[in-house]
Write the structure tokens for this entry.
Amino acid sequence: MRIDTKSRSDPLRRRLRRLGPGERREEAQAFIRLFHRENRLGDGVRREREAEITRALRRSGTYEHTPEELAFGARVAWRNHSRCIGRLFWKSLEVIDCRTVRDPDEVAARIVDHMALASGDGRIRSLITIFAPVRNNDLPVYVESAQVVQYAGYVDGAGSVIGDRQNVEATRIAMALGWRPSGPPGMFDVLPLVIRHRGRRLLYEVPPSVIREVDIVHPEYPRIAELGLCWYAVPCISGMIVTIGGLDYPCAPFNGFYMGTEIASRNLADENRYNLLAKVASAIGDAPDNDKRHLWKDRALLELNRAVLHSYDRAGVTIVDHHRASEQYMEFARHEHAAGRVPSGDWPWIVPPQASAACPVFHLPMRDLQAVPNFYRSRASDGGRLRPNYEHETRSRLQERWDRMKRRVRDWHRLHN
Ligand code: ARG
């Protein structure tokens, strides 16, 4: 069965931010000023570049970033992304410029290269590969899969799920397009990468040689290993759009490394994911039935976290625990303040799901400026309120009032359109 034929309404179109020509010009100029200010480039060069961009926008509705602007924009998008606890390292993001790559096979090949480079010998490098931007009405090739590596979820006859419940729909689509797991459905079958090209879906197998996986074992409870759990080394997000200076790059897979709780407290534990707490409890010799306060869950969570951290360490794969990550976030916030900037934070995302109040970030007031450059999924959710942030610029009262008014009109329009 072919479930997808050529169609005009590519789902990407419904996710992209809608910017009018004036808004795009404003974002482009704000970005260029930021780029020149933070890199201490002279005023003359900046004015020239601004004029050039204004001309290009007027002529063609779009413009092109220099490689330096692109790299800076991607790093600042990370710095601005309020949901990430790992931003202390934003400057070290390596940017691979693939803007000229437009052929889906080639996109897939570059993503394979990305995965190989990112996992290397186990010391994970934070990388982003950026493919072609949206130009006016032209949608480039992009990745539909939320991550480059993710595990299949199969619904069996009785309605229970083998594998990752989160990916049941993605698995159904892949199978409808002809994909099959290599053996009987397993708990950790890597799904193929789905690439969208001119409305069509194309499937690509990511070669196992670039997918590093870690078997989960516990330093003290051998029965944890018997559960046969594993997880992949490199979380590579491929379903987000990077917006820089008014231009959107919908195909820009990026990766960092894991914080243990993402795997142990969420992916393997959540009821709508692997839902493994009861199994972990019995593997460590706990009897959930006798614990009317349900604290067996806390014990299972703790031991699963220990197991994940221990297993990654043992395999030599980079991972951070939530206590250290929280400290690093505090340091990031201090650095930002010292640089005269306000860090954006989204509290429910930053605070780890384990030992929350014992992590310093729990007690840190946070504000989300929703500034561009940034990463977003859809204008209907996280992309809708992104805008340039002028807090570190001296702007006249009049300009500020004008900004506010424009924003109000814009928000009104978004609400009513
Ligand atoms: N939470 C997601 C997962 O468990 C990954 C999100 C990005 N995480 C990161 N450490 N860069 O797969």
Summary: The longest strand covers residues 193-197. The CA atoms of residues 308 and 391 lie 41 Å apart. The first helix runs from residue 11 to 15. The pocket of arginine is lined by residues 235, 237, 256-259, 262, 267 (CB under 6 Å).
